[in-house]
Write a structure and sequence with these properties.
The chain is built from two helices and eight strands. The mean pLDDT is 88.
Length: 159
């Protein structure tokens, strides 16, 4: 009797694990496709050779932002619009503020309890760092910083 219970439990656990892996892979598929598209376009149009990060930014428009090294070893950022007919925008990472500097600015000006995410994006032809965080009351907040100047651009608070 014990043997049947153990075998039944093992079967249910393995079936559940298999279903979870399948569902996770299926749900993640479109994101993987987008990352491949962004990486291929950055390699082709911006001559990026080594990819460090890929950000998916959903603001007023969707952008895929690829950070990596060009053939000279220079760190560059490539903004790729979701609209395939638009040209990519390329900037040196050193021409803007770093991710760490953006995070430091957030902590200087706000009091985040938990940093949820940091990503590069583009709003109204302006390259921005978007920082999402939780405040003291566990409200979701967004803080935007100009990539080029490092100045605060806007906040969305208490969501």
């Amino acid at each position: 009797m014990k043997k049947w219970i153990i075998l039944s439990l093992l079967f249910v656990v393995s079936l559940s694990l298999t279903a979870f892996i399948y569902i996770y892979g299926t749900a993640r598929g479109p994101l993987v496709d987008i990352e491949k598209y962004a990486e291929n376009r950055a390699r082709k149009e911006a001559k990026i050779e080594k990819v460090d990060d890929i950000y998916l930014y959903n603001g007023s428009e969707t952008y895929y932002v690829v950070v990596g090294d060009d053939s000279d070893g220079t760190k560059i950022v490539v903004w790729i619009s979701e609209k395939e007919d638009q040209k990519v925008e390329i900037k040196k990472l050193s021409d803007g503020i770093s991710k760490e500097a953006a995070i430091s600015k957030l902590y200087e000006e706000e009091n985040p309890q938990k940093l949820l995410g940091v990503r590069l994006g583009k709003e109204k032809d302006l390259a921005v760092w978007e920082l999402s965080y939780l405040d003291d009351n566990s409200n979701l907040n967004y803080y935007y910083i100009h990539f080029d100047s490092g100045k605060w651009w806007r906040k969305i608070e208490n969501l």
